[in-house]
Amino acid sequence: MYAKFVRWMLLAGFVLWQAPVWAGLDIQQWNTAAGAKVLFVANHDLPIVDVNVDFPAGSAYDVPDQSGLARLTNHLLTLGAGNRDENAMAVAQADIGASIGERFGQEEAGLSLRTLSSEKEKQQAFQLLAQSLQQPRFDAAVLARERSRMVAGIKEAEALPGTVADKAFNRALYRQHPYALPPAGETATLVRLTPADVQRFYRAHYQARYAVIAIMGDLTRAQAEALAVQLTASLPIAEGGALPPIPPVPALPQAAVEHISHPSSQSHVLIGAPVMTRTDPDYYPLLVGNYVLGGGGFDSRLTQVVRDKHGLAYSVYSYLSPMRQQGPFVLGLQTKNATADEAVRLARNVLDRFVAEGPTEAELRQAKANIAGGFPLRLDSNRKIIEYLSVIGDFDLPLNWLDEYPKKVEAVTLAQIRDAFKRRLDPNRLVEIVVGGAAQKSPADKDGRVASTAQ
Q: Parallel, antiparallel, or unpaired for β 266-276 and 431-435?
């Protein structure tokens, strides 16, 4: 969950916003004849081209009895295509100094490319990326080997308390919804996946009409247009109707508390609820409010109370992860097993008070200043910019989203934050997962929240 927190901070613009960098960013957008959406920013300062290609092919498009199919399919795209097996593909990239990588999340999946913009190198790199997207080999022997590696990786990760907490949290939060499926899959389902399963998933999801192509770097508009056509010309053709959309997330029926025993020295705690979509009208009030609550590092109330005042956790935080449907609000911390109950009580008290009262005027001013322009990191590389292009394209955000971001932050009021948190986050209807120490024995806690135990 902490990795998701860091990624969200980067994508949300917490640590990358500085007005001079964003001003005048010329994002050009168009659609290819095949239906792919393209976003392009030219930058001739460096002889580099970056490309991201996304499809609706993340783990939310898995089904329970084939959990892990989306991840396996995406992984195999980089392991041989056309007349090149995985070794030949790796050698071809190394020869021209290019790098093709996987892009995988709960909703989108695809490939990325970084290459030099010199004519020979870029044309060879574009051809390799096009092959990987359009002619994946899905060799049976490679699939079997990588499937076994993925199973081994899952088993190893499941010994870690953080992984146990993440999986339990998502199950409790999303229940039967696709967001509950673990992105890496399940060992019991992975071992049954076949090349035919992978080919079927690929043909259904990696179609030109679904593609979002982000291009950043040393190209002209005409060259970017030609590249977009090259990357999508031979993708699978449309078969049947469009993919069904990810369904809305049902509201939590009641609070749930789960304490899972684990032989670790520290307890891992996650508390949260489904709250916000990427295009939510409460996006900015929730964003700014969460900075005060737990997203602002040492400035946040959670850190000041749980860490600084009481010394119960080195790291305590909260974040919002907006998705197509209601992504989670997450409050997380790690603490010694002996202090888990006290740390959870203090953190929930901070949350309860914040939902009831919101931030102070001083906290709001500080949050706005830091979010809009107080952090040192800048959008100073192609790779950083292209991630924003992908987010804008994937979620159909307006092209001026980056320019409007600080204005929307500055416009947030105390009343909007208080109203948004009261409506969207009920402290009496949260999921609470604690992994570490001995499992609790009581069927319900003192507040009446449903409790369960696991070994």
A: antiparallel
H or E element in which residue 71 lies: helix 69-76
pLDDT tens by residue, 72-92? 999 999 999 999 999 999 999
| Helical (H) or strand (E) element with 327 | strand 327-336
**Non-local CB neighbours of 230 within 8 Å, separated by 6+ positions:** 126, 127, 130
Q: What is the pLDDT of residue 431?
A: 98
Residue 239 CA, distance from chain mean position = 28
38: which 2 tokens?
A: 């393209």
Report the predicted TM-score, pTM, of the whole model to 2 decimal places. Answer: 0.89
> pLDDT grade, residue 378 (50/70/90)?
very low
- HSE value, Cβ hemisphere, 13 Å, CA-based, for 378: 8
CATH number of 26-232: 3.30.830.10
Residues 147-157 pLDDT 10s? 999 999 999 99
Determine contact, residues 371/13, Cβ cutoff 8 Å. Answer: yes
Rounded Cα–Cα distance for residues 455 and 453 (Å): 7
* 53 contacts 229 by C-beta, under 8 angstroms: no
Q: Which residues pair with 55 in a beta bridge?
A: 109
Task: Tell me the mean pLDDT in the region 269-286.
Answer: 97
Closest C-alpha to 166, from 151, 152, 180, 185: 180
- Three-state DSSP at 313 gives coil
The CATH number assigned to the domain with range 256-454 reads 3.30.830.10
If you compute the radius of gyration of the chain from its CA atoms, what whole number of angstroms results?
Answer: 23
Distance CA 342, CA 338 (A): 9
Distance CA 29, CA 213 (A): 10
Q: Which two tokens stand for residue 228?
A: 């977009």
Residue 182 has a pLDDT of 96
Q: Range(s) for CATH 3.30.830.10 in the chain?
A: 26-232, 256-454
Q: And the tokens for 2?
A: 């902490």
Q: What is the DSSP letter of 297?
A: G
Cα(333)–Cα(271) distance, integer angstroms: 9
